[in-house]
Amino acid sequence: MTTTHAYDVTVEWTGNLGSGTDGYRSFSRDHEVLADGKAAIAASSDPAFRGDPARWNPEELLVASVAQCHMLWYLHLCAVGGVVVTEYEDHAHGVMAMDESGGGGQITEVVLRPEVTVADASMVEKARALHGDVHAVCFIARSVNFPITHVPVLRVQEG
């Protein structure tokens, strides 16, 4: 039997500047991403598409989702595999390529650059190898059609 999980969010446009969408430049791309019991995410489009640079855009949120899912599964695999992680930070990078008409595009790759600190030097090689196991179980990685690569940096906790 297959188990399913449902995820409900509301996306609410807050960018009507008074005349709705009567022209390409007459409205803001600002919106909020909402879910019951959670703080709103102030979002917009990418600044290249008339968005507010102070707000999250969908492309950043997609890259963040890939990085979060990788991290959470990686930490799980480390915990059950005897690798003690004491710090984890990822500087993820996504690339979107526009099609020739300029009217559309797609994410073409995400590169994860996790910086991981482990408790003991004996754990470094296993910690490095476990990154390669994440793609098979990460819900987000299994759901997208672009390559996700990882370039981990491993450190040993001092003292």
From TrEMBL:
Pfam families annotated for this entry? Answer: OsmC
Query: Which Gene3D superfamilies does the annotation name?
Result: 3.30.300.20
Q: What PANTHER family has UniProt attached to this entry?
A: OSMC_OHR FAMILY PROTEIN, OSMOTICALLY INDUCIBLE FAMILY PROTEIN
Name used for this protein in its record: Organic hydroperoxide reductase OsmC/OhrA
Its source organism is Streptosporangium subroseum
